[in-house]
Each structure stands twice: as C-alpha cells, then as structure tokens.
Design goal:
Elements lengths: L4 H24 L5 H23 L9 H29 L1 H23 L5 H18 L14
Amino acid sequence: VSASVVGYGLVAVALLAAGIGTIYTRKYMQQYDSLDVTSLRIMTSAIIMIALSIFWTGFDLRGLDGLGYLSLFYTTLVGGMLALLMRFEIIKRYGATSAAMINYIIPISATLGGVLLLDEIVTGWMVAGMVVIFFGITLSTYNPLSAKRVHFRSR
C-alpha cells in the first residue's frame, strides 16, 4: 500500500484545524456552558454533513440493521457528544495544552481496546511506542516547582 500525498495533506489540514479550534475555544469561549457549546457544535456538524452527504453520495440508512443503528447511536453518544463535552470542559478548566494531551492517549486506548475486544495483536514496537508516549506526557506535564520535594537527612 503506497501513501498518498493528498492523504498526508488532509491529515495536516485536520491537525491544523483541530489545533486552531482548541486555541480559539480557550481564548473566546470560556464563558459559555459546555453542554450548550457541544450541542451546537454537533447539531451544526450534523446539518452540514447530511447536506454534503446528500449532495455527494446520497443519504441512505436502509442498509443498517438493528446492530448498525445501535452502533451509530453509541458512537454518536460516547465517541461524539461525550468526548466533545469532556474536551471542551478540559479546555475551559485546564487549557489548550492539557487538552492536546488527550490526542496522545487515543492511540493507546484504541490499541488496548483492539486487543481486548477485537483480538488484535500488539507488537513490541507498539508497546515501546506506548511507553514513549507516557514518558512524553509525564515529561511535558511535570512541574518541578509544584512537586513535593523529598529531602533526606544524613544521620
């Protein structure tokens, strides 16, 4: 499988948009209720995506069975609404930098979920990558000025 320059470009645009959105949220949306903002974001996104879907490919849910509708509902509720609500709250309370740390944990939780629920295989390199991620998060969030210092007295 070869990589596409267009794909890398789209990833770069998505990352840039997410970063700008996080900074904008922290700077201009502190005073708004998290539930209100999350609801408005999801409704606006849904309206735009349904319109684009109808225009480009059509909007047809007839192929979904009961499990498909349940999966759609679950991913919308947990992966969409709950995740956005928590992200907005983290941005408000702790800042854009702390909110960005979430993005490092997602691959780890997805990998562990894949192992537990989908019988996927984790390689040694993947585990090494997880260790590097945890070390990086610890290093970037550690504040030596607020950490308790332990002093050992010699006898």
